[in-house]
Amino acid sequence: xxxxxxxxxxxxxxxxxxxxxxxxxxxxxxxxxxxxxxxxxxxxxxxxxxxxxxxxxxxxxxxxxxxxxxxxxxxxxxxxxxxxxxxxxxxxxxxxxxxxxxxxxxxxxxxxxxxxxxxxxxxxxxxxxxxxxxxxxxxxxxxxxxxxxxxxxxxxxxxxxxxxxxxxxxxxxxxxxxxxxxxxxxxxxxxxxxxxxxxxxxxxxxxxxxxxxxxxxxxxxxxxxxxxxxxxxxxxxxxxxxxxxxxxxxxxxxxxxxxxxxxxxxxxxxxxxxxxxxxxxxxxxxxxxxxxxxxxxxxxxxxxxxxxxxxxxxxxxxxxxxxxxxxx
Length: 328
Hints:
By secondary structure, the protein is α+β, with helices and mostly antiparallel strands. 27% of the residues lie in helices and 35% in strands. The chain has six helices and 15 strands. The protein has helices at 90-96, 134-139, 145-188, 200-210, 232-241, 252-261, and strands spanning 7-15, 27-35, 38-46, 55-63, 66-78, 81-89, 103-111, 116-123, 212-214, 224-229, 264-270, 277-285, 299-302, 313-320, 326-327. The strands form two sheets. An eight-stranded antiparallel barrel has the order 1-2-3-6-5-4-7-8. Helix 4 (200-210) runs antiparallel to helix 5. The longest helix has 44 residues, at 145-188. The protein is globular, with a radius of gyration of 22 Å. Residues 144-199 are annotated as: Disordered.
C-alpha cells in the first residue's frame, strides 16, 4: 500500500435516523488529514443526545476483497457536543486494506443488542447514497481486523483505568471547586450569572492565544482586530466555550472557502458610535458572485494583492456580542 501524502478533507454529517437530537437535529463535520506516517480523523458533533448510551464511529470503505467496515472508536458526548480524534498509522491502514480515498461513509452509530441506529452519516463521495442493506451487515458483524484493534484499545485502557479514574475524579473535584468559587465571587459582587452571555474577554484571549494575528485589508484600524483561522474545529470549540453559537461546520460554503484558500478570518469590531463589540467572521471567496455563506446578512469586502490564489475578498458577517444575534 502506498503511503498517503498530505491532504485535508472535510465532510458534513447529515441526520439519517431521527430521535437523537437535543433541542434540534444533530449536525457536525469530519476532518481527514493525511500524513506520511498515517491518517488523522477528527469529528466535531453538536446537538446530540447524551443519554448514557455510547456512540460508535464507523468507517465503511471499498477494498480489493470487497467492502470494509472499521469501528474506529467511541464518540464522547458531553453537554450535547461530541468530539473524537484518532490517528491511524500506516501499518494499521495496511492491515485493514483501508485507503483514505476509498472511504464511502463515516457513521455515528448507536449499537444495541439486536438493533443499530445511525443518527448521523457523512458521505465522502458526492454521488454516494446510503445503502440500507449495510445496516444488516453492521448488525451481524464478523470478527475482523477492526475487532482486534478494539481489543488492543480495551487492553490499553484496562491497564490505566484505575490511574485514569483517580486523575479524572481529582480533576472533577478541582473543577467543581473552582466553579463554586467563581460563582460565589460573582454573587458577592452582585454580578448577574447567565449561561447564555457571550464572554467577549475570554473569546478575544482564546483567539489571540490560538491563532495568528493578521491585517487582511492592508488598512490598519484601531476599531478592528483580525486573526487567521486555519482550523475550524478549534474555532468552533472556542466559540462554543464562550457561549457564541455560529453554525460553522453546518455551512458547506464556509468549508469550501476554508478548503480552497486555507483560512478563515475571525475578528472583532468595536464601534465608537454605540460602544458595542461585534464578532466578525470572514469567509474568503473568488469574487462577490461566489455564493454568500449567510445570504442577506453578509457584506462583501475586497482585498488588494491577495496571497491566496484567485481570492479577491471576503464575505463578512457581524454578530453582536450583546445578544449573539447576526447583524444585517
